[in-house]
Every structure is written in C-alpha cells, then in structure tokens.
Amino acid sequence: MRIGLDGRPLLGRRTGIGRYMFEICRELDALLPGAEFFVYAPQPVELPPVSRRWRCRVEARTWARRLKPIAWLKLRAGRLCREDRLDAFWGSATLFPPLPTGVRRVSTVYDLTFRVAPETMSRTHLLAQRMFFAYDVRHADHLLAISHGTATRLQEWLGGPLAAVALPGLSPAFRPRDPAAVGATLRTFGIAKPYFLAVGTWEPRKNLELLVQVFRALRAADEFHDYRLVLAGGAGWKDERLRRLLQVGGSVSTPAGSDGVTAIGFVTDDELADLYSGCRAFVFPSAYEGFGIPILEARACGAPVVATDLPELREAGGDGAIYVPPTDEGLREGLRRVVAAPPAPPPSRGLLPTWRGSAQVLAGYLNAD
C-alpha cells in the first residue's frame, strides 16, 4: 500500500498540528509495516525516527518553493502524488492536493477557527480555509476530528457522517520531572519560583495579552507579588499589541522585568516538561482551541491547570482543571483559586489518551478496503 501525507505541518518548529502529525507518523510506521509512505512538502521537513519505507517528496523547482504552502499544495503537490501512484492520502492539515480518482482520502480536522474566531487568523490562512475547507472535507472518504467538541461543531455546520475522533496523545517527555532537572532548566532561563506558566504561539486566539494585563494588575494590587509569569512559545501573527505590551522587537524572548513577566521563546519538549513540573500553575486562557494539547501535557507533569471553559478544553483537562471565562475577572478568579487549592497528584498515565490509540484509528481508515 502506498500512502501519501501532507507534510506542511512539519515545516519549521513543531507546534500543535505539527506535533500531532509527528507523533502519529511515528506510530503509523509500526502499525502499517507493509506500507510505503510519501511525505509531500515545498521545503525539507523533519520526520520522526521511522523506517526506510518513508520518502520525503520535496519540491525541486526553486520558484515553486517560494509559493505559500497552501498554494503549493493545491498547485504543485498533485503532480507528485500522481507520479507515486498512491492508494491513500492523509490530509494531515485537513486539505487535499488534486488527487487521481480512486485514491482514498482521509482528512483530520483540528479546529474551526476560521468560523469560530476568524479575526484571530492571518489573512492568507483565513482566505485559504474559506476557499477550500468545506469542499475538501465534504469530498473526504473518511473524516476524523481531534476532539468530540470539534466533531460536534463540524457536524452542526456541514452535517453528514464523521468517521471517528482521534484524540491527541502524550509524548514520552511529559511526566513529573526530577527536581534537579527542573532546577537546571529554571536556571538556564533565569526563572525563580513560584511562577505561572503559559504556552502558545503569539497569536490573538491564545489570549496572552489579556493574561499579561491581568497578572500585572494583580501584582500592582499586591497580589502574587512573589510570583512570576513565564511565557513559552514562538512568534506568530497579529502579535503587535503583545509585543508592545512586553516591549520586545524581533525576538519573543525577554528577561523578567519589574512586573514579573518573562518571555523565553520556543523550548524543547524536555525543557517544557521541566517548566510544567516546576510551575505553581499552568494557565491556558485561549479564546478557542480544537483540543488543547498543552493542558494534557501539563496535567501529565503534575501541574495544576487554569483553562478557558470550552468543551474542547474540558476534554484535555478532565476534572483536574479549573475552568473560567476568558475574561479579566475570569482569569483573576482562576489564579486566586488555583493558588488556594492544594496541588493534586498527576493523573494516572493509563487513563490519558495515547498516540498509539489515535494512530490505530487513522491506520484503520487508511488501510480500509
């Protein structure tokens, strides 16, 4: 069996969709030992440790490499797919290239941001989603969602059957970490305890600007005066207001100031697990998400969680999080409650979703007769 994959989520540093695809690919390699895999991308990408049955199909023409990734998928990737005589294609970022008749199409839907919170998206991404999303998901042979909340929103909008839900899992690094390792990572970034941690790309949907304003106001009122707020995550889009708030330029890293806020930029999985393990609480104030992988990771590392009260985030946080509205008063109350509550032990790993389980769902549809 010859399976094609949209490799665009693996371009650059791995964030939400990239992490999902990276971990699922690792599991697919073990679950489908008789398959050949073709990963299509306009630029070279990093694959997980997999067998020699995987081949990266990278754009050869210099001019085409300069296309926007979505334009490349729609205008160039189809030619490579036809050359490779595919049996199935995984739309790992929901959309499909032009595919020959008879190729099985399996699409994964992560969120409906372009409908729920379009104002938070870049113009190019919003336009692409409006142009292609509905058509491509309607023409998928099998449609998967990463949460029941996303599945419900999708079915309410488009109707029709959804094949299954394949929840994100946990990477091995995310577990309670040794105090010595945690201390070393905190020293690396110049972080002192106690601190709140927030993780996310700098984009409006993550609501980091409001979190910074709330934290600063609480400190100014002599609440949490010993605390720090640590922001981990890379540069994004429409982040000018947050940059002005933190007084940063091209980089998103800045040392802690007198207001106790520090931004440390992109971190590795091991560093992130240490940060989760050492924080007093993890705060996830997003206005909208398709699931909330960082909440799952933080819980697995033993961090108390404050999160926006959304159905999709409750799937990630379960009963072990404090849920609040994504408002000034909601965040204030959430921070106060989480500090007042005694820390709870991390959930049993056996009760949390796994990448293997999600990959088994996908593999079943890629390999369907």
**Element-level helix/strand string:** EHEEHHHEEHHEHEHEHEHEEHEHEHEHH
CATH topology (fold) name of the largest domain = Rossmann fold
> How many β-strand stretches?
14
Query: Order of strands in the sheet with the most strands?
Result: 3-2-1-4-5-6-7
Largest sheet: 7 strands, parallel
CATH level-1 class of the largest domain:
Alpha Beta
How many helices? The count is: 15
Mean pLDDT, all residues = 93
What proportion of the residues form beta strands (DSSP E)? 15-25%
Structural class based on helices, strands and sheet pairing: alpha/beta
How would you name the CATH homologous superfamily of the largest domain?
A: Glycogen Phosphorylase B
Number of domains: 2
Shape: globular
- How far from one another are the termini? 11 Å
Which consecutive residue ranges, at least 5 long each, have pLDDT under 50?
A: none
Write down the oligomeric state.
single chain
Helical content class: 25-40%
CATH architecture of the largest domain: 3-Layer(aba) Sandwich
Model description:
With 369 residues, the protein is α/β, with parallel strands linked by helices. The chain folds into two domains: 2-169 and 354-366, Glycogen Phosphorylase B (Rossmann fold, 3-Layer(aba) Sandwich); 179-351, Rossmann fold (3-Layer(aba) Sandwich), CATH 3.40.50.2000. Helix content is 40%, strand content 17%. The chain contains 15 helices and 14 strands. The protein has helices spanning 16-31, 62-65, 69-75, 77-83, 113-116, 123-138, 148-158, 179-189, 208-220, 240-246, 269-278, 293-300, 311-317, 328-340, 355-366; strands at 2-6, 36-41, 54-58, 88-91, 104-109, 142-145, 164-165, 195-199, 228-232, 253-254, 261-265, 281-284, 305-308, 321-324. The strands form two sheets. Strands 3-2-1-4-5-6-7 form a seven-stranded parallel beta sheet, sandwiched between helices. A hairpin with a 6-residue loop joins strand 10 (253-254) and strand 11 (261-265). Helix 1 crosses helix 15, helix 8 crosses helix 11 and helix 9 packs across helix 14. The longest helix has 16 residues, at 16-31. It is globular, with a radius of gyration of 21 Å. The model has no long low-confidence stretch (mean pLDDT 93).
